[in-house]
Specification:
By secondary structure, the chain is α+β, with helices and mostly antiparallel strands. Helix content is about 40%, strand content about 10%. It has one domain. A four-stranded antiparallel β-sheet has the order 2-3-1-4. A hairpin with a 3-residue loop joins strand 2 and strand 3.
Amino acid sequence: MSGGNAQKVYADESYYHIYNRGVEKRTIFLDEQDYGVFLGYLKQYLLPKDDVGLRILLSDPKTSSREKDNLLKLIRLNNFNSEIKLVAYCLMTNHFHFLIYQNHGNSVDRFMNSLGTRYTQYFNKKYRRVGALCQGVYKAIMVNSDAQLLELSRYIHKQALPILRTPGLAWERRDSQPCSYPEYVGQRKSEWVHPEEILKFFSRTNPKLSYESFVAQTDDLSLIGKLIVEDPYEI
C-alpha cells in the first residue's frame, strides 16, 4: 500500500486524509472478524508498547515456547504511538478512510506500509488468495485549514452513518459501519483515537453548536473536493 502518488506532500506536524479501496473495488472486509483484526492492528500500532513488560514475560521460565514466539513478534512489531494520531476513521466494505496527524514527515508512509502489508497477509491467508488487496497505492492528501479539518471529519463519519436525523444524535447503530463517531459523542472511549483534535471547535453544552449538530448538516462539497482525488461519493 505504500508508494508514490501525485497528491502526496509529506510534512512534519500535519494532518492528512488517507484512504484506499480494494483492487477492482472488491470487498476487503468480508465479516466481523476482518473488521476486528484490522481495528486490532490499529490499536497495537497506536497504543504505547510496553517493551519492558514484554521482555520480563519473555525471560520468565514459566512462559511457554509458543507464548515466547508471540512475545517476540510483539517486541519486533512497529509502533507509531509517538509519531501518529488517529483523529477519525471509518471502515466500509470495500474501502477505508483515516484522518491522521503525523509528527514527522515519513511517519504516515511507514505506518500505512506496515498496516497494509500486515492486513493483506492476514486476508490472503484466511481466504486463500495471493496478490495485492488494495487498488494501487493509498491516497494521502494534506489538510490545509481548520475548515477542511472539520469538514473531513464530518465526511468520514457520514460515510459510515447513512441514517441521519435532526436534532440530536444523528445515527442508528444497526445501520452503521465501524467508525470513530462513538468516540465523538461520548459513547465510547478508545485511547488510540483522538476526537479532542476536532471537538475543541464545538460546544459540549449547547446542542445547536455541538459536533452532532454539525455532522447532521449538509456537507461542503467545495472543501471535500480538495481532499479527495476521485469523486467523493464514488470511492
